[in-house]
Amino acid sequence: MKTGTRFLLTTLIAAMPLAAAAQEDVTVGFAIALSGFVAPYDDGPYKAAKLAIEDINAKGGLLGRKIVEVSADTASDPAQGATAATDVLSKNAELVMVTCDFDFGAPAALVAQSQNKIAFSSCAADAKFGVQGIGPNAYTMATATNHQGAILAEFAWNTLGKRNVYILNDLQVEYNKSLCSNFEKRWRELAGGEGVSGYDEYNAGNDTVIAAQVSRMKDAEAKSDVIMFCGAINGGSYVRQIRAAGIGLPMITGESMDGTYWLEAVPDLSEFYNLTYGSIHGDDPNPRINDFVAKFTTSYGEAPVTGHALTGYGVIEAWARAVEAAGSFEADAVRAKLDAFSGEDLLVGKTSFTSDLHINNNRPMTIIKIDGGKASAIGVFDAEKTPEITF
C-alpha cells in the first residue's frame, strides 16, 4: 500500500508542471472558411491574426500567458458556422474570430454570444454584425458600408468628376445590398434625382450569367459615365461579362473586390477602382502597412490575398489591448474596455466602439486603381457626410 501510494503521489507531482503549463496558455479560436468560395476573404485575416499572435507572444504573451490558436472550417457554408464555433469553444477559446461577412459569420458569432464569449468578425461591414444583429459580445473590425458607400460616392463625384451612375447590385449577401443603398443615398445628395442613369440587380447564388442585365446597361451606356458595382462572390465573372459587351465605363466598387486573385477572368481590366483597408501591393501611403505586407510575404511566401488581412491583425490587436486594460480575459470586463475605444490606433486604422455600435463608421480607406490588369494605390480617401446607421 505504501509503495502504491508513493507511486501515485510521484506520478501526480510529475504531471503538475504539464498541467500548470497548459493553464498558462490562453486560446483564440477561428471559426472561418478555410475552404470553399469564401476562403479568399478569410485566408488573409486568418494568417494576419496568427502574425499578431506571434508578435504578442514574442513580447511575453497576454497577461503573462502564451496565446495558442485552434481553428475549424465552415467550408463557406453558413449552416456549418455554428458547428465550427462550437468546436473551437469546446477547446476553451476565449475569443472567436468568424468569417468576413455578416451572412457567413453570424451563425458562429451567435454561438459565441450564447456562451458569453467575445466574437469578432474580421471584416463584416454590414452594421447588423454587432449588438443589434447578434448581441453585445459581437464586434467587427470593418468599416461600415454606410461610410464605404459615402466614400465611393464622393470619390466618383469629386475626384473622378462623374455625374451619372449606373448601379448594378448583387443581392446574394447583405454587404452588397447595404453598400449600394448607402452609395445611392449619398450620390443622390450630390447629384440629385437625375444622377442615377439606371439600376439593376442579380443574385450570384443563382445567376451565373447576367446577359439581360448587361444588355440593359448597354442601352443606358450613352447617358452614364460610371458604374457602381456592388458585387462580391465570383465578381470577376460579372465584370468580364460587362467588359465583353464592350462597356468600357469606369467601374467603382467596395472592398469585396479587393485583390488580384480574380483578375484572371479579366486580364486586361482598366478603369476599375476598389476600396480597401490598405494596399497589398507595397505602395500604401502608410509605411506601417507596407512593413506589414513585407512581413506577411516573408512569413507566408506571398503577399496577402486582399487588404482584409489588416482587419485580421486588428482583431487580435484590439482584443489584446482590451484584455490588458481589463486585466482579465472575462468577456464582460473585456467588452467594457472595447466599448471605450475612441480612435484607438490599430494597424487597420483608427478604431472606435460604443456600447451600442460595434462597427466603425468614420474610418478613411485606401482606393486601388486597376489599369491594364495592374493594381496600384492612388491614395487614402474619406467622406464629408455619411448616411446614418439604422437598424
UniProtKB/TrEMBL annotation:
InterPro entries: Leu-bd, Leu_Ile_Val-bd, Peripla_BP_I. Coiled coil: none annotated. Keywords: Amino-acid transport, Signal, Transport. The keyword Cytoplasm does not apply. Residues 26-374 form the Leucine-binding protein domain. The keyword Transport applies. It comes from the Bacteria. Gene3D superfamilies: 3.40.50.2300. It holds the Pfam family Peripla_BP_6. Residues 1-22 form the signal peptide. Belongs to the leucine-binding protein family. This is ABC transporter substrate-binding protein. It comes from Aquibium pacificus. The lineage of its organism: Bacteria, Pseudomonadati, Pseudomonadota, Alphaproteobacteria, Hyphomicrobiales.
